[in-house]
Each structure stands twice: as C-alpha cells, then as structure tokens.
Amino acid sequence: MHRTRFPQPVQFDRKKRSAHCDVPGVQSGRGGGYVKPGPLARLPRRDGIKPHAMTYWSHRYPAELIDVVQLTGGERVVIRPVLPQDQELLVRFFHELSPAARCRRFMHPVNEPSLKILRQFTQVDYVTHVALIAEIFADGRETVIGEARYVRTVEQSSAEVSLSVAERWQRKGLAKLMLSKLEYGAAAGGVRRIIGETFADNEKMMSLARRAGFVISDCVRGVVRLEKTLTMQDHKRPCEASA
To answer: How far apart are CA 26 and CA 150, in angstroms?
Structure first.
C-alpha cells in the first residue's frame, strides 16, 4: 500500500517559544523528555544529543491513537503518532530494511529516503495526513519497527494508505494492528474510502489486504490497486493483535 501523495509540509517556527507537557506512557529517548499533545512541542533529547531549539505546529496531536499493544509473540510495542523529531528514528528504520523491502515500500528502488521525503514523513498536520510509528524500547534506546500513514485525496472523503513493518517483526500481528488503527482514525475523521497500491507479488501485503476486507483490482504492469469502504464498524477502537 504505497505511493502516497503528501500535503504541504508543516512549517517550523524557530522564533516561538514552546510549552512542555506530559503524554502518559510515551517517553522519548535516553535522558527523558516528554512530547506535548497539542500545537507546540519541544524536541526532546535523543541518545544524549542536545535538542534543537525548534517548535512545530500541527492541527491537533491525536493522543487517542497512542497505545501499548501486545503482539502474538507476547512482545509489547508502543504505537503512536509521529512527530518531527522522529526523523532520525525513521532514517534508521529505512536503513535497516532490505533493498527489496524498501522497493516494496516506495514502489521503486531506494537506497535511502531523501530529506524532502523524510520531512514529509515527519511533519504531519493530522488533518490531511495522519502517520503512526510502532516502536520498542531496549537498553534506553528507541527503535522504530513499523510505520503507517494515510493522506487524504482531493475528494477529502478518500485517503491513500501505506504501511511497512521491519522483516523480523512481521507475522506477529503488528501490520494488522497498525492498519486497524489507521482505519479507526480515518473513519473517525470522516474518511469513507481508503485506497493503496502494492506489487502483485507482495504476498504478505496481499494477504493482509484480503483479511482486512480490501477489494483487489486486476494486476496492471505488476501493480494492483487495493480499495476498502469504511463502515461504522471501523469507528471501533482496535483490539490487541490476533493470530
């Protein structure tokens, strides 16, 4: 589910002073620092690096999408909306994907995402563009193991979705959980149809799409279109992963 059109990036304002507030259960990096759910947030410390004096503006940080989930293997994972300071984490995530996995994610060979793409991935307005990351915490370090997002189309009632999960964390129910959370957020925000594209030989994504109720179009030049109409059922909050 790839090839997403992005809205205009969120603009940074280096002059405004930022506020500080806790988000329960989401601590950012070694040395602490919590992310504020609201229009302004200070970049926290990561691995001892001094944070930039920078703030960002978003419509509203969707704290209701923050969750701690348990996968089918018993692992606990945090799923939360992405923030601008997650750029370094996402760089590491994409670097650790195999070349084939990066190709499936971006629908063409990619060595590493450009700075423009990384900004688009992390500067999210949470109106036209909603993005989630899944992360684990080990030895005082955050590691992103999955990312998912939707971007509204021109019609506004439709949105394009994309999703990727690190290979060693696949087949644990994480992709299903992240997709369910995207559907929940999209349906609650007024989106009535979600669409995406994937390679016809991407068996894992095809299987996920079928189980999630997507209609799969005929293959055209090795690519299939995925489409799902959201219902009132999708307004319900997703539960823990299942087999």
So the answer is: 22
Residue 127 is predicted with a pLDDT of: 92
DSSP state of 238: P
Q: Are 175 and 17 in contact (CB under 8 A)?
A: no
The CATH number given to whatever domain includes residue 48 is 3.40.630.30
The model's pLDDT over 153-208, given as tens digits with 9 standing for 90+, comes to 998 899 999 999 999 999 999 999 999 999 999 999 999 999 999 999 999 999 99
The upper half-sphere exposure of residue 207, i.e. CA atoms within 13 Å in the direction of its Cβ, equals 7
Residue 169 to residue 165: CA distance in whole angstroms: 7
Q: Against a cut of 0.70, is the pTM above it?
A: yes
Range of the domain at 174: 12-235
Whether the CB-CB separation of 110 and 93 falls below 8 Å is answered with no
Contacts of 103 (CB under 8 A, 6+ apart): 109, 110
What distance in Å separates the CA atoms of residue 48 and residue 170, rounded to the nearest whole number?
31
Which among 17, 204, 30 is positioned nearest to 100, based on CA atoms? 204
